[in-house]
Structure formats: structure tokens, C-alpha cells
Amino acid sequence: MTNTDRLKEVLSQARHEVGKVIIGQGDIIDKALIAIFTGQHALIEGVPGVAKTLLVRTIAKVLGCEFERIQFTPDLMPADITGTNIFNLQRNEFTLIRGPIFTSFLLADEINRAPAKTQSALLQAMQERTVTIDRDTHTLPENFTVFATQNPIEHEGTYPLPEAQKDRFMLKITMAAPGRDEEFILAQRMLGNESPEATLARGDVQSVIKADDLRELRQNLQNITLREELLGYIVDIVRATRQHESVLVGAGPRATQSLLLASRGYAAIAGRDFVTPDDIKTMVIPVLEHRVILRPEFEIEGLSIGEVIERILQEIAVPR
């Protein structure tokens, strides 16, 4: 079995195992796996009750990784995330008490409820996978991945994420409520002892790999072929966001890198060892939506960022 075949098999098994708990969210599962296998981070947006936390907990179980959750609140301090040095009277020395950031998968729940000072505590960790505590730098696990959630309809008492922090999330994953059929299945399972939480707690979900295997599988993404013409297509799309008449602030170079990685990840999820233009088109909105700011006059007219991105796609020639 080739490295690429191994990657396809693990992704297929992971999707199946997560699907035992997360009902009717196949597209969401795919995007979360893409963020993990590309070594990036994801911003998850959705109303309460659509299984944002459960999704990350389940994926952590399936991939054999540690999981920690931080509930962001207005009084949360940076040290509550990173940890701090405590003086040990018995040993007459300072001892590091590590915070929840020292994990593989970190769920930053309602990240926009904490002030900027606390939000910024994640910046170094997300970019460099290191944490500085009292001038000492500590290395985080190599699988460190942040999934940050926010509620799109409740803005009272929140602190909007700064552009610099949003740019560090490769994807914005929008979780909507499941369809009627999926919600009916969920209701049926709740009648017995088959609820998603019970399924996960009983151990019905199996781990498909160990945490140590994830690094090797991530490297296998490099074997997914991306033609030079498609690389130019990605660059043209991102650059067009900076020049469009309705855009105030376009996507930066990090968006180009993210779209490249996301397209490779989507091709792997689809079971292919090469990227197609459709892979790029599929991942454009999740990668660019949170990075683009519209001009106020176009927002007033009701134009959405997704519509602008679709217009940009129509204006750029697709490579054959």
C-alpha cells in the first residue's frame, strides 16, 4: 500500500467513525479533517446545539489525540490558558503548572467572549506551536490544533476577533442545523440510549490511528499532485479579492497558502491523488470568507462575501 493509499484509507475510516456520532454533517466533518491533516486551525461558527464541541471531541477520539476545552469568558486571563509558574515551598523553587493549551486538540469555546488580551494568548501558539511563560519558551505537541467556536447571532458582551487572529484560521466552518431526516434520526436515537453523547461515552467509536501516526500522514499530503496551472489559478483568485470594487480589505498571502493546502486536503478526502479545479472552487469560500471585508456601501445593499467570491470565480478563467 502506497503512502497516498494509506492516507485515503485513514481519512475514509475517520469519516465513518465520526459519522457514528455526528449525524448529517458530512461536509462539516470533511472540513474539520482537512484542517487537522494540513496542520492548520479552524474557526467553527454556529448556533448553540449543533454539536460543535461534540464534533471536536469525537475527532480527537478517532485520531487518538488529547482533547481540552476552554470556555472563554470576559474575566478569563492569558495565564488561565497558557499556565503559570507557582512557587513550591517544599522544594523552594518555581514549578510550572501547565494550562489547557498543552494538548493536541484545543476547543476555544466562544472565543469572541474574551477580551483581546486573552485572545492574543493563542496567537503565538497557533503560529509557532510554542508558548512563552515568564520569558521561558515551551514547545506544544506537534499535533496542536485549535478549533475556535463563536455564536453568529449573539453579539452582546462579545469582542470581535481582530483580523490578524482570523487570518491564522485556515478555514471558517459554518455549522447549520441538520436536515429534517437527520434531525428525525437524532430524535429517534434520543428515545433510547443511542444519543450521540452516549455513543461516544460507551466507546462505540474506534480510534483509527495513534497520535504519533498523524505527522507521517500529514506529510503524505505532499504526494497529492497540484499542477502549475492550478497553482496560478489559486494565486489569481486570492489576488482578485484585493482588487474587486466591492472589497475593502482582501485576502493576504497566507490565504494563498491555505487555499493550496485545503485543495490538497479535499482531493485526499475525495480519494484522489491529484487536485482538480472543482476542489479549489469548493474550498474557496471556507478559506476566504473570514479574511475578506466588504466596503460599507455594498454591505448596506445586502451583498454578502460569499456572493462576491462567487463573482470573482466567474471572472477568472478556469485552467483546462
Description:
The chain is of the alpha/beta class and 320 residues long. It folds into 2 domains: 3-217, Rossmann fold, CATH 3.40.50.300; 224-315, Magnesium chelatase subunit I, C-Terminal domain (Helicase, Ruva Protein, domain 3, Orthogonal Bundle). 46% of the residues lie in helices and 15% in strands. Strands 2-5-8-1-9 form a 5-stranded parallel beta sheet. It has a two-stranded antiparallel sheet with strand order 3-4. Strand 6 and strand 7 form a beta hairpin. The longest helix has 17 residues, at 3-19. It is globular. The mean pLDDT is 90.
* CATH fold annotation of the largest domain: Rossmann fold
Q: Strand arrangement, largest sheet?
A: 2-5-8-1-9
| Broad CATH class of the largest domain | Alpha Beta
Shape label = globular
CATH superfamily of the largest domain: P-loop containing nucleotide triphosphate hydrolases
- Overall helicity: 40-55%
The helix count comes to 15
Query: Strand share of the residues?
Result: 15-25%
The span between the termini is: 31 Å
H-E string: HHEHEHEEEHHEEEHEHHHHEHHEHH
Main sheet makeup: 5 strands, parallel
Question: Based on helices, strands and strand pairing, what is the structural class?
Answer: alpha/beta
